[in-house]
Amino acid sequence: MSTTITALIAEDELLLAEHLRAELAALWPELEIVAMAAHGQAAVDAALAKRPQVCFLDIRMPGLSGLEAAAAMAEDWPEGAPFPLLVFVTAYDQYALQAFEHAAVDYVLKPVQRERLAQTVQRLRQALGGRAAPADDTAPALAHAMAQLRALLGSGMGAPAPAAPPLRLLQVSVGNTIQMVPVSEVLYFEAADKYVRVITAGKEHLVRISLRELLPQLDAGLFWQVHRSVVVRADAIAKAVRDEAGKLSLQLHGSTDRLAVSRMYAHLFKGL
């Protein structure tokens, strides 16, 4: 007796999405595609609503990349629910794919070839077959998935090329003038639609850049990403506080703001 397996496909090119759906239907009749998403945020929303067992994610999509979408899923995934198995669909060359192999997640290259996809299907079947475990085992599985995603995001896959040397000054428009804001004075950056909020001890500025574009320009030793929408200056952190539900928040020197730390980045504060 066959058991239905549920999956999501996130691909912004309709023809490629339909080709992948057709190939999966031929190779894996028990697989039910419960959602098709045309961009990263749609993939996150559909995954959280449908909770598929497998997600096929295109690396390059409008808005959130496939990696960023997977990270967003992991941050908001319900406690106790099995996290989906991830397969990234990519056009990257072999050198770049070393990052995927190191993180031990599966991937298929564009254009998708049936023989290679058949190998992925076999791996997914085996992995799902070993998931007949109590709900208590979902926590380490989610932690493992997040560790893999951190490794991939840290490898720079799909991110803009980093600037060298790190950014020291921000040019901020204030009316008819350009104000120079030393990056060393910034307490934290927060994504705000197509802008980034720049918070210093006494002021707030808006700069027209995405957090994804800004992050590679910052000194990684000085600025820590603590949420998909927040990057904080490490030496501005006064303390990290864990509430009764186990969620972390940061208190900063020079600010009354409290910054939430997502699951993806909670490992930064393990020693506290």
Quick synopsis:
The protein has 272 residues and is α/β, with parallel strands linked by helices. It has helices at residues 14-27, 40-50, 66-76, 94-103, 114-129, 138-154, 211-214; strands at residues 5-10, 31-37, 54-58, 85-90, 106-109, 169-174, 177-182, 186-192, 195-200, 204-207, 223-227, 230-233, 237-242, 248-252, 258-261.
Structural class: alpha/beta
What is the overall shape?
globular
Strand line-up of the largest beta sheet: 2-1-3-4-5
**Any idea of the CATH class of the largest domain?**
Alpha Beta
CATH topology of the largest domain: Rossmann fold
Low-pLDDT parts are none
Radius of gyration: 20 Å
Largest sheet: 5 strands, parallel
Helix and strand succession? Answer: EHEHEHEHEHHEEEEEHEEEEE
Give a count of the beta strands, DSSP E runs of length 2 or more: 15
Mean pLDDT: 87
How does CATH name the architecture of the largest domain? 3-Layer(aba) Sandwich
Descriptive notes:
This protein has 272 residues and is of the alpha/beta class. Helices cover 31% and strands 30% of the residues. The chain folds into two domains: 5-154, Rossmann fold; 169-269, OB fold (Dihydrolipoamide Acetyltransferase, E2P). The protein contains seven helices and 15 strands. It has a five-stranded parallel sheet, sandwiched between helices. A five-stranded antiparallel sheet has the order 10-9-8-12-11, with no helix packed on it. It has a three-stranded antiparallel sheet with strand order 13-14-15, with no helix packed on it. 32% of the residues are buried.
Question: How are the SSEs placed, and which strands pair?
Answer:
Layout (H helix, E strand, L loop, with lengths): L4 E6 L3 H14 L3 E7 L2 H11 L3 E5 L7 H11 L8 E6 L3 H10 L2 E4 L4 H16 L8 H17 L14 E6 L2 E6 L3 E7 L2 E6 L3 E4 L3 H4 L8 E5 L2 E4 L3 E6 L5 E5 L5 E4 L11
Parallel strand pairs: 1-2, 1-3, 3-4, 4-5
Antiparallel strand pairs: 6-7, 8-9, 8-12, 9-10, 11-12, 13-14, 14-15
Helix pairs in contact: 2-3, 3-6, 4-6
